[in-house]
Amino acid sequence: MDSAILSIIQQLGYFGIAVMMALENIFPPIPSEAIMGAGALAMTHGKMEFWPLLIAGTAGTLAGNYAWYLVGDRVGYERLGPLIDKWGRWLTLEWEDIERAVNFFQKHGQWAVFVLRATPVMRTMISLPAGLAHMNLWRFLIFTAAGSAIWNALLIAGTVWIANSFAEAQTWLGWGIVAVVVLAVAGYLWRLATWKPRAER
């Protein structure tokens, strides 16, 4: 399985990693853990290097988050509601989810962008309220890039450490990456199939 993953990563290259990370932040369901984990697995076989991989992953993350920031900044709070009502099903979210993220941003301030980008919680969602609040663009980009770089570096370093520390780890890491992707896709499809507005639950 690891050979199949390596083949895919080689074909994608660093640019492909960046595109996948951008898409991961714009639209579910393939998680960053699988993308950066696959890149890190390629590192252990000498197919990729740390800094180019980190830069590619962080650039893609930044592009995806900027897309959400732009939506909030340009569309605005009032016009966003009807869009979420119409298309929220495909993102498996609704207006209450947006309001919670906005309240979190207002409570914790602009540093929430940096902190949440370096954690697995609300990492992408925080970009929308940052745009709605018209956070300074350069500050948003710097905070997002810094937090994303930390998260991506942890994913790469953690995967490489596991691969180098345990016998036959690379074999089950490959299967683990596939399992993460399958579970993420299945989870998204399940949420999509069973999704209902809270008012109808």
Mean pLDDT: 86
| Straight-line distance between termini | 41 Å
Total E-strand runs: 0
Helix/strand class: mainly alpha
In words, what does this structure look like?
Helix content is 80%, strand content 0%. It has 201 residues and is mainly α. The protein has one domain. The protein is globular and about 55 Å long.
Strand-helix topology:
Layout: H1 2-26, H2 32-44, H3 50-75, H4 77-91, H5 95-108, H6 111-117, H7 127-132, H8 137-165, H9 169-194
Helix pairs in contact: 1-2, 1-3, 2-3, 2-8, 2-9, 3-8, 6-8
Gist?
With 201 residues, the chain is an all-alpha fold.
Supply the key terms.
201 residues; mainly alpha
